[in-house]
Amino acid sequence: xxxxxxxxxxxxxxxxxxxxxxxxxxxxxxxxxxxxxxxxxxxxxxxxxxxxxxxxxxxxxxxxxxxxxxxxxxxxxxxxxxxxxxxxxxxxxxxxxxxxxxxxxxxxxxxxxxxxxxxxxxxxxxxxxxxxxxxxxxxxxxxxxxxxxxxxxxxxxxxxxxxxxxxxxxxxxxxxxxxxxxxxxxxxxxxxxxxxxxxxxxxxxxxxxxxxxxxxxxxxxxxxxxxxxxxxxxxxxxxxxxxxxxxxxxxxxxxxxxxxxxxxxxxxxxxxxxxxxxxxxxxxxxxxxxxxxxxxxxxxxxxxxxxxxxxxxxxxxxxxxxxxxxxxxxxxxxxxxxxxxxxxxxxxxxxxxxxxxxxxxxxxxxxxxxxxxxxxxxxxxxxxxxxxxxxxxxxxxxxxxxxxxxxxxxxxxxxxxxxxxxxxxxxxxxxxxxxxxxxxxxxxxxxxxxxxxxxxxxxxxxxxxxxxxxxxxxxxxxxxxxxxxxxxxxxxxxxxxxxxxxxxxx
Amino acid sequence: xxxxxxxxxxxxxxxxxxxxxxxxxxxxxxxxxxxxxxxxxxxxxxxxxxxxxxxxxxxxxxxxxxxxxxxxxxxxxxxxxxxxxxxxxxxxxxxxxxxxxxxxxxxxxxxxxxxxxxxxxxxxxxxxxxxxxxxxxxxxxxxxxxxxxxxxxxxxxxxxxxxxxxxxxxxxxxxxxxxxxxxxxxxxxxxxxxxxxxxxxxxxxxxxxxxxxxxxxxxxxxxxxxxxxxxxxxxxxxxxxxxxxxxxxxxxxxxxxxxxxxxxxxxxxxxxxxxxxxxxxxxxxxxxxxxxxxxxxxxxxxxxxxxxxxxxxxxxxxxxxxxxxxxxxxxxxxxxxxxxxxxxxxxxxxxxxxxxxxx
Lengths: 506, 359
Known about the structure:
Chain B: It is a multi-pass membrane protein. The structure holds two protein chains of two kinds. By secondary structure, chain A is α/β, with parallel strands linked by helices. Chain A has 14 helices and 17 strands. Chain B folds into two domains: 21-179, no CATH class; 181-340, no CATH class.
């Protein structure tokens, strides 16, 4: 396995990003522990990008762990399985991790404590399965991107087929502060991750694996290197620690020096990016036939008594995880589902862990660093931090002046809302909030415009139809009138002829 | 569980949920720290008159800021505590003749924050560097007072406290003290038809210790440069503006001096005199009035440097940093527009990059 090293010049030329305090310890130094079973699991039907899953169970039904409880809801969607054995007690609205604290339909499952599996179909050598079979089984297992994006993995695999993917990138950067679930997973399950990556490799027809791991995780790098040793196609690459290194396009640029076009996908440059957690889930699904029913979650933050990584059943409420980690030492200033940079602030501790939940954080006031925003001093920190090369301060100024169109012209669409700018801003301007607001507003405006266009089209069509009908009516009328006149004229002529005839006769 | 989890969690706020420690006031504080050694050195060189002028200038700048905030019914305390008005007054004081009369400091300080900053809308909204606006206003309004320089106490006996107060508040500098700056001397002599070779036959009166006539921002060159390097090390400023500005002065100076040493000062004299170092590290780097992209900063810095050299060499005034910075301030928005960074996945024009293999 030849070692791939990031050329120093590439590191030097790519100067974007910020260096937040990592806060990875103590959780990163402790083994992953099983979280156990809470009293109730709430499983939202939309735990992935795309159409929500369709419920196929009924209230009162007993289900086993791994049993399908909601099937794929469309082309881009993922099925959902029971995380443990128990009874479906309700299919009802429940809080979900959502930035606006919205609720969504969820299956409420009361565990019976037996944790009884459905019969599983294990495969001793899953690598011998066909491409098609691998892809199908990944789809059936309900696997989605475990890094937080939650894009259905099987859809991504089939994407690889269409766009001639040559490189599979394993994202082990885990650039968000506090989070160490991928770090622990790589340390404890490196073999499974590498096997999973090889399975994805086979399914996509790519020829090499590049696993990018930030240099602040030396143990994970070592474990992955050892596990990858027998496979010449798998390369473990140390990448600089900075945020947002785990954004797929930024990772691609750092690992290969190639930029994906702004209007295309990573697959356009022959790259497919999967999280290490996804590779692990793929391995479990193919080797042991296990659908996705649990994931590793980092429970951390200054308000948590004993931060730790836990193996958590999907649907577990956050409150249960905090209790499992010794409770909260102080009232949290903010509770976050996900990482502190891009995670979702939650208001209700019943909010469940979903497939994309990498962390559950209770942050103390000092960590959040919240303060009243002050005027922009144009220091340019945000410009330097932006991984995309945008001018966040200029975009925010335009959005503030309600010139959303101008903000779009200078690159709002390219913004990842990664939060590097908002993190670094000395004036504490809520830049991400501006951008999210503007993106939402522009999206609803374009929807409105589309609606208006449709209405206009319909109105025009109606007007045209009425005009056409009137014209047709007039034509028919005219034709009939002409016919009538012709008939009258003919009759008159006939009459005259008859009169003339009579005269001659007389 | 140590404490019951309150059900009333804080209201939802947008990401990111963690922030950098720094704030506007910590940034300003670090700049002041970097400026402090050179200022203390200036106090030591120029004695009591310089200290009282500095105090008056800073106090007036703060008073001007506070008065405007009160008039506009804005909160006074947080704005004063951010340190920006204090720093403006401080930088202005560094650029004044240290023995200037009291009203120069008062008028300058008030002008800087009232006209230079608050009239534009306060912190972050001003187009021009407020300290330089005030300095230029004073220079064109009171050219005699603003060019009455004295040598540091190393060269002449330092005045006592009473004499100092009469210098600051009485309004006249005893003739025994006055002398010209290097740039002033060069300009005066050249205009009289005396070549630089004749004027500085005994060698140029430049030294790194700064023992020569000039403003406080002109004399403690080594300490100013050290403060500037400290700002670079603390990542308060980046190297782009200072380096570009110093090169913008040095390169034309080198060429000019090589072509005609009797007419043009050498690069060393240019860099070590006037406000070149103060300007490069502390004035041109003002966040508000300089471009925010790195490429723009290089253009801006080079422009400041080149214009400084042009004004010094051909203009009516011996020193040109303030004019150069103001001229480039006016261009900063245009530079920002033209020097936008390239967006990921797009070419310099903003179109998505094309892949080699066409589909």
